[in-house]
Design the sequence.
């Protein structure tokens, strides 16, 4: 009877540990480097960027975000910021459409970022990582720095 009990306890512990590892894996699904797949993306208003690379890294409880873009006209843009999933405002460098953002986690695969320029909300990004962790879909809606309505769906492949 003691052997059966010990076996059951080991099985329960093993399942619990594997469940925690899976949960951690999905919670970190955004972490890594992503490359824009222009063929699967739509940009309104256009034109689409020539290329874009995103990088997400955790530094403690803060997500560090960098975006390097080659715009349609060949100019480059580098954006960088760090934020926590706590709904507070964090400063952004290098983005013409926003100078601060708040970030929250919806679930293990989905996060949302609301950008502001001054005190005015401008764009909202909803980032969704596929269940297999290979694709990131970023939906951007709102108004850009030029006052144009934005409705972009950018699809990224994990590098």
Sequence:
């Amino acid at each position: 009877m003691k052997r059966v009990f010990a076996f059951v306890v080991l099985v329960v512990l093993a399942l619990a540990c594997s469940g925690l590892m899976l949960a951690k894996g999905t919670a970190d699904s955004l972490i890594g480097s992503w490359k824009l797949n222009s063929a699967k993306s739509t940009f309104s208003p256009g034109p689409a960027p020539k290329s874009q690379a995103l990088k997400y890294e955790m530094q403690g409880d803060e997500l560090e975000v960098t975006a390097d873009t080659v715009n349609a006209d060949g100019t480059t843009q580098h954006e960088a910021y760090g934020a926590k999933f706590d709904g507070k405002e964090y400063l952004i460098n290098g983005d013409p459409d926003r100078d601060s953002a708040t970030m929250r986690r919806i679930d293990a695969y989905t996060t949302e970022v609301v950008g502001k320029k001054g005190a005015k909300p401008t764009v909202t990004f909803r980032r969704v990582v596929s269940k297999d962790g290979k694709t990131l879909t970023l939906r951007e809606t709102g108004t850009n720095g030029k006052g144009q309505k934005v409705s972009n769906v950018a699809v990224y492949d994990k590098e």
Remarks:
- The beta strands are 32-36, 51-59, 62-70, 76-83, 89-91, 100-105, 110-117, 120-129, 135-143, 149-158.
- DSSP finds one helix and ten strands in the chain.
- The first strand starts at residue 32 and ends at 36.
- Residues 4-27 have pLDDT under 50 and may be disordered.
